[in-house]
Amino acid sequence: MNRCTLVMVSKKGEGQDHLSPCQVTGSGAQSARSESGKAQGRGGGLLPVGVGAVMYTWSAQTGGSLLYISIKPTLGAEEATGPAHPGWAWDGARGAWSHSCFSDWAAAIRVAALDCAEEKNQEVCRTYDVHFYPTFRYFKAFTKAFTTGENFKGPDRELRTVRQTMIDFLQNHTEGTWPPACPPLDPLQPSDVLSLFDSRGGHYVAVVFESSGSYVGREVILDLIPYENVVVSRALDGDTAFLETLGISSVPSCYLIHPNGSRGLVNVAKPLRSFFSSYLKSLPDVRKKSLFLPEKPNKAENSEVVVWREFDRAKLYMADLESCLHYLLRVELAAHKSLAGAQLKTLRDFVTVVSKLFPGRPPVRKLLEMLQEWLANALPFWLLISGIFLTNHVKWVGCQGSRPELRGYPCSLWKLFHTLTVQASTHPEALVGTGFEDDPQAVLQTLRRYIQTFFGCKECGEHFEAMAKESMDSVKTLDQAVLWLWSRHNAVNSRLAGHLSEDPKFPKVPWPTPDLCPACHEEIKGLDSWNEGQVLVFLKQYYSSSNLVDTYSADQRESSEGRALGRGEVEGQALTPPEKFRRDKDAESLRPPGMLGPRADLPQDVQHRLDLRLQSPRGPGALQEAEAAAPFLGVGFSSLDMSLCVLLYVASSLFLMVMYFFFRVRSKRWKVRLHHPAV
Ligand SMILES: Cc1cc2nc3c(=O)[nH]c(=O)nc-3n(C[C@H](O)[C@H](O)[C@H](O)COP(=O)(O)OP(=O)(O)OC[C@H]3O[C@@H](n4cnc5c(N)ncnc54)[C@H](O)[C@@H]3O)c2cc1C
After folding, report:
1. Which of 219, 230, 295, 650 is the most exposed place for a label (fewest CB within 10 A)?
2. Per the structure, how many domains does the chain have?
3. pLDDT tens, position by position, 611-663
4. Both 405 and 495 in a single domain?
5. What is the pLDDT of residues 498-533, one digit of tens each?
6. Are residues 472 and 566 in the same domain?
């Protein structure tokens, strides 16, 4: 075996239901259901085979250590994806349960669980001599002979103690048995640090300076294991003169050497492990090693050009929200030729909520209101969205992915949902008269039904539904609704971390990260924890209309790519010229992830009609006319268009009436002639 293992076995029945994401109490009955059929089905992982087999299977496959820890007696695969066990998730790609607090350490030391209160595990527990609950068992890397593992002898069962014991245990390995994926954890000498200044490895080098009893440096080293382009080391604060030359006045501090040789102290709001780790993970070019992301095989297949748009992660982009609506209408809903019954009600409620709460530009809101009215009057939905609202244009900014198949629509849908819950909480009056005004869950329940009924990713819908069933009912205020969605989104993030769908440039981490919201993060007894009051303040600011930026949304109608426009400038812009429509590769290149299924194309006749209309050489007059148009979702209908429609309608009605009277009068005359042939 070439990793170490710890088993913790707990007594059954003592609650674990209120663990914070990084908390493991030691007193409960805890374990993953080790022979859960579902768990097996999800990749034939470690748990189905019990401790002994776990040790050797793990050892043979990966060469690291293992911490075996039990979390709840009834934990099945589907439960682990729910919120009852925050931080724990079945990781199908790696074939193991993982905890968000340790998942980055997994290449060096992994955590697993066994429930000795389960009858089927009793033999294993007897073999491994487990009598007390909880029991932690460590198994060293490269263990070949049978061993019952080493007992955990920490003073308490706090997660911080468990983490530190894991580190001590790792450091107990001798040179020959050191887990290969585990970086050196011993401190560097000042001379070693100096030599780093001269070496040019083409990557970042971070050195955490700390006191001898501190674990921060080692935790940051382990946190960064899965990341490339950065190497982390630690050094002690013994040599004060040396620290002074580096400008270090307090520890822990992190000193960073950039790939170009420049260097200096890292400036974080709080000198905590989570702040240092998050800062290093967010450095340019530092990204998760794409262990599970197969590279595209050759250049020809990889030739799609993605134009990268610079953006600010602290801002919300109108282009993302509007592109979300485009996609939602023209792909997700356009697939439904007709809607009736519960589906129609779900859509009506969803559109009502969006039309009342979407903090968009006036023409966009006007069109959303129109959509709501059309739905209320039961006009055929397919006609509405295919004839008027469709374009083939999406433009992701804050949701752009480093590859075309990553991020995009699902990202923007989350952003739309958060925006709606925040708007409902900050502007509750917007829903007055809709029937939703008195229900703090109304928006969440509407989003839930939308996801269940229409979201293209069925698996996502099932996971979301499981979370909703579990705890949506506990939401009693509009603020709680905001926090509920935030915490469930984080649960999804932690479940998907390292997953195939994760963009290495945008690793799935608890959000907001410390750099975005330092006040949201606290450390209590060494545990990362959230200050939910501050999180709420942050969410209300982040998802407010004042944080919405129109940059890039303007060029949906403009040819000058990337030009930043203020809100006033955006309104009333001309239609996108047809050439741009056809040349713009974004609509093609920024498709949603494959999981959402193929893109529904516009019916050809509709596309043809739109093209003809857009190509009409009406000269400057057309531009003026377009300025008066509502340009939302690409195709604007000006007042001239509408007047022509009405005129045509009136003319055809008159024509029909004239024809009617003409034939009536004629038939009367014939009748008179037939009855009086002599006349
Ligand atoms: C309802 C729903 C359920 C999903 N379920 C699954 C699933 O089961 N399996 C699957 O593979 N994919 C699922 N997805 C897709 C997945 O969650 C991501 O949307 C997708 O992988 C793209 O990830 P991303 O990096 O763009 O970040 P996303 O997770 O999409 O986040 C988008 C943006 O929201 C902000 N954000 C991040 N976290 C939070 C938070 N906690 N609170 C507020 N804002 C936040 C950040 O600015 C981030 O860039 C689901 C999507 C939705 C909308």
Report:
1. 295
2. 5
3. 333 333 333 333 333 333 334 444 444 445 555 666 777 788 888 888 888 88
4. yes
5. 777 888 888 888 999 999 999 999 888 777 789 999
6. no
What lies within 8 Å, CB to CB, of 208 at 6+ separation is 216, 217, 220, 221, 232, 233, 234, 235, 252, 253, 254, 255, 276
State the closest ligand 1 atom to the C-alpha of 493, by its place in the atom list counted from 1. Answer: 29
Please check whether residues 540 and 666 belong to one and the same domain. Answer: no
Around ligand 1, the residues with Cβ closer than 6 Å are 399, 407, 410-411, 413-415, 418, 451, 459-460, 463-464, 486, 489-490, 492-493, 496, 501, 503, 506, 511
In this structure, the residue with its CA closest to atom 33 of ligand 1 is 411
Q: How many CA atoms lie within 13 A of 67 on its CB side?
A: 26
End position of a domain, from candidates 522, 548, 574: 548
* Residue 231 in domain: yes
Domain boundary among 548, 566, 593: 548
Residues β-bridged to residue 548: 316
Q: How many whole angstroms from 599 Cα to the centroid of ligand 1?
A: 20
Q: How far is CA 334 from CA 320, 327, 364, 386, in A?
A: 19, 9, 19, 7
Alpha carbon of 364 to ligand 1 centroid (Å): 25
Pocket residue to mutate for ligand 1, from 411, 413, 418, 503, most atoms within 8 A of Cβ = 411
One domain, residues 281 and 430 = no
Q: How many CA atoms lie within 13 A of 206 on its CB side?
A: 31
- In this structure, what token pair is assigned to residue 120? 């089927």
Domain extent, residue 595, equals: 554-627
Distance 313 CA to ligand 1 centre (A): 15
Ligand 1 nearest atom to the CA of residue 487, by list position: 41
- Compute, in angstroms, the gap from residue 490 CA to the centroid of ligand 1: 8
Domain identity same for 65 and 155: yes
Rounded to the nearest angstrom, the distance between the alpha carbon of 643 and the centre of ligand 1 is: 44
C-alpha torsion sign, points 671, 676, 677, 679:
negative
